[in-house]
Amino acid sequence: VIAMVPLADFLNHPPDGVVKPNVAPFFDVSTGSFRLTAVRNVAPGEGLYWDYGFQSNRHSLLRYGFASKARIGLTDMPFFFRLIDASSTVGISHNLKMDIVRSAEKKGTLSMEPDGTVLHELKLALTGATAEKLLGHLRLMVVQAKNASMLQEYCGDTFCRPISLGNERLALQQLSSLLDKHLVAYGTSADDDQAAIDSGKLGPG
To answer: Which of 22, 53, 131, 159 suits a disulfide with 126, CB 3.0-4.6 Å?
Structure first.
C-alpha cells in the first residue's frame, strides 16, 4: 500500500551511530488506520525515529536527501557497458553470441543501445536478482562457445547461468576490468571525494 500520512513524515530516520529506531509503523488495511508502535522504551523528550527501510543509498539520496554509512554495502549505481565489446573478435564463438543477442533483441528480452550498450544496477554486494542479471551478461562476454546448442543451453536470452568455475573467474575479472575503466573516467579520486564530504561544502560542479 502506498499512501501519504499527515504528520508521519515528521519522523526521522535514525542517524548512524547516534540513536536506534524507537518506533515502527503499522497500517491496518481492514480499518484504514495507521499507527506508530514503540519498539523500545522512549525517554521523555526523546525524538521519535523509525527506520525508513531503504535498501539503496542511491535511492535514499534521491528520495530523502541523505545517505547512510551503515548501508554502504547495499549501495547501488547505474552501470553501463557494451555487451558486444568482448565479442569483437571474429570466429565461431563471436558469431554464435551475436545470434543470441539479435534473437533476444527481436523477442524484446534484451534492451540494448545501437552501439551495444546495456544498463545494469551494480551493488557492492553481488547478490540478488539484479546481480545475477549482471553476472549473466558478464558470463556471456567471456564464454568461448563451441556450438549453438551449448550457448543456448547456458545463455538463453543472453543471461548465462553459471557455466564452469573457470568461466565464473573470467566473468569476475571482466567485471573488475569494466570497473577500472569507469574509475579512470572520474575526474576525482576517492581521497578527493572524502575530503569534499568532510569539508561539508558540497555543491553543483
So the answer is: 131
